[in-house]
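Example: DUF1211 domain-containing protein.
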Amino acid sequence: MGKNRLEAFSDGVIAIIITIMVLELKVPHGASLAALVELTPVFLGYVLSFVYVGIYWNNHHHMLHASARVNGKVLWANLHLLFWLSLIPFTTTWVGENVMAPLPVALYGVVLSFAAVAYYILEKCLISCNPSDHILANAVGKEYKGAVSVVLYLLAIPLAYVHVYAAYALYIICAGVWFLPDRRIEAQMRS
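Written out as structure tokens, the predicted fold is:
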């Protein structure tokens, strides 16, 4: 089965996710700088979530580019990933409106951790769907960043109830780790 429809569908869903997030940015109630400054937490939450969605889009693109075909398992695994990514706008808005509340900050981590696990499942499904083509399998190798990210998300969830800013710091660190593109797939495709 070809992968073009999967790529197009995924790109469309991710574009909608980003659109929903930007539409949740409300116009300030006033024309002063102070009114704009009040929206800083909401805007920073949007930036972090935009970075996360961008990271997933970028890595998803590379992963599909390294795969020759998809099957039914891959389609369902992809939908699983898109489901968790589609919850990012909701949690982003909730955190933005309740910056210091532990539950929204913890739920943000829950969504990020499930998205990371869903991405891992998709990666494994693509590798098993393309057994004769080892580009993705060789590029991924032992995936440490993904495992470390899940651990950090799982630490941030209870940490949100102890120190909200520490949970935010873990989310920012994870985004920073993934922000730089992973060159392993590109390197495998060149060799």
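The mean pLDDT is 91.
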